[in-house]
Design brief:
Elements lengths: L11 H12 L3 H4 L1 H7 L3 H28 L6 H8 L2 H15 L1 H15 L8 H17 L2 H29 L11 H7 L2 H14 L15 H30 L2 H4 L5 H10 L3 H34 L16 H17 L2 H29 L14 H20 L1 H29 L3
Helix pairs in contact: 1-9, 1-12, 1-15, 4-10, 4-11, 4-12, 4-17, 4-18, 5-6, 5-17, 6-15, 6-17, 6-19, 7-8, 7-15, 7-16, 7-17, 8-15, 8-16, 9-12, 9-15, 14-15, 15-16, 17-18, 17-19, 18-19
Subcellular location: Membrane
Keywords: Membrane, Transmembrane, Transmembrane helix
Protein name: Amino acid/polyamine/organocation transporter, APC superfamily
Length: about 450
């Protein structure tokens, strides 16, 4: 087994594909139905996705500065340890290493099983979910070279299918009597509570723009590649999300989509007829494979980075000869399998949203903190639009956290409790290190 040394073999293209795949999950195919139920305006809904995209881009620009300055795998674990204190970073890493990636993988895997029913209704969703997770994990255990190829190809297929759906909708869909031009009523919708609430879920659909920072230690020329991949991926997804929602609105009556969770299937039937459900179901399944692959790659890199820094977790830092963190990947697979078998992933995901949002908030805030505390720090990339762009992201994220605390106080507190259990592990690890360092 290797010692966990960083092996930089990942290209800018693969890092971009990883972020795109991590972002485009199930959210864009399900959330429109709830948005049009309270915002029955094409312009306002598209503006919602544009505003969410701009906020995500502002976060991406800030993360690009941090990633270029501290090009090590681990994402927020790496950033917060460096900016504030190793204990703060450990808390971020703890939530990511335990359930932060495992729960979304389990949810995506179960969604894969459910949407596959549109193609073959006889196979149990749980069996399909477990199968896709185990197969994708086997690919990632086979080596970074295979992981890169699989990620690039699956993401390329996903983007191609989404573009094909957009073109087919414009070419064959029946235009609806809607207007994408702003009207006087639209500004009432934009200033309403439903618009603000919907923005929270749009931001969740954009989450994943920071994916490349979790594998920074494996990326070639990280000071150049990381900023490019983070920003490029976010711009690609903004364009795709806005275009996809525009096609759904253009081809499908708002009344047919309002309140529906499977809005993509509804739109598919309006574009392609009854067979359209199968087409869109297959598209979503393929898209979910690349999302599962991205998170299967990212999550164990956080665990591996923690293992390198803390003797108590040293076993998790072990890698194969080409740098694959085998033990960390198998640990994540075990957690995902348990979550799928117990059907507890949705509750876990609901619980950790506040903690994950808080970690992103602290990371972007850290760009401002470091500009004051370490003005001489080498910064190969500096955040475009500073300080306006970080403040835009901080404002949107602060609103999201406020909404989560007000609407889901128990879940938010439980998420913080899970995060804080990491303090006990951190303290025990530090105590063991001190005891081991004492002269005998």
């Amino acid at each position: 087994m290797g010692s966990g040394l960083d092996i930089r073999t990942v290209s800018t293209v693969t890092a971009t594909a990883l972020a795109v795949a991590d972002m485009i999950g199930i959210g864009v195919f399900t959330s429109l139905g709830f948005q049009v139920a309270s915002i029955p305006s094409a312009f306002s809904v598209l503006l919602l996705w544009i505003v969410g995209g701009v906020a995500a881009l502002c976060g991406a620009l800030a993360y690009a500065e941090l990633a270029a300055a501290f090009p090590r795998s681990g994402g927020e674990y790496n950033f917060l340890s460096r900016i504030y204190h190793p204990a703060v970073g450990f808390l971020a890493g703890w939530i990511s290493a335990t359930v932060g990636f495992s729960a979304p993988i389990a949810l995506a895997a179960m969604a894969f099983g459910v949407y596959f029913k549109a193609i073959s209704p006889d196979i149990p969703p749980l069996f399909l979910g477990l199968a896709v997770v185990w197969i994708v994990t086997a690919v990632h255990l086979s080596g970074i070279k295979h992981s890169s190829k699989f990620q690039n190809i699956s993401t390329l297929i996903k983007i191609a299918l989404i573009v094909a759906l957009i073109i087919a909708g414009l070419a064959y869909g029946t235009p609806q009597p809607i207007s994408f031009a702003p009207s006087a009523d639209d500004w009432t919708y934009v200033a309403s509570a439903p618009f603000a609430v919907s923005l929270v879920f749009v931001m969740y659909a954009y989450s994943g723009w920071n994916a490349a920072t979790y594998i920074a230690g494996e990326i070639r020329e990280p000071s150049v590649s990381l900023p490019r991949s983070i920003v490029a991926a976010t711009l690609i997804v903004i364009a795709g999300y806005v275009a996809l929602n525009a096609v759904f609105l253009y081809t499908t009556p708002i009344s047919a989509m309002a309140g529906q969770i499977d809005v993509a299937l509804v739109a598919g039937k309006h574009i392609f007829g009854e067979f359209g459900g199968r087409i869109v179901g297959g598209l979503i399944c393929i898209g979910l494979i690349s999302s599962i692959s991205a998170m299967t790659w990212i999550g164990p890199r956080v665990t591996m980075a923690m293992g390198k820094d803390h003797g108590l977790l040293q076993a998790l830092s072990r890698t194969t000869s080409d740098g694959v963190p085998k033990t960390a990947i198998l640990l994540q697979l075990g957690i995902v399998t348990v979550l799928l078998m117990t059907q507890s992933f949705e509750a876990v995901l609901d619980t950790i949203q506040f903690s994950l949002t808080l970690c992103s908030f602290l990371a972007v805030l850290g760009v401002i903190v470091l500009r004051w505390t370490e003005p001489g720090l080498p910064r190969p990339y500096r955040t475009w639009g500073y300080p306006v762009t970080p403040f835009i992201f901080l404002g949107v994220t602060a609103f999201m956290m406020y909404y989560l605390v007000v609407e889901r106080p128990l879940q938010s507190l439980a998420g913080l409790a899970i995060m804080l259990t990491g303090l006990a592990v951190y303290a025990f690890s530090q105590r063991r290190s001190l005891i081991g360092a004492r002269p005998q």
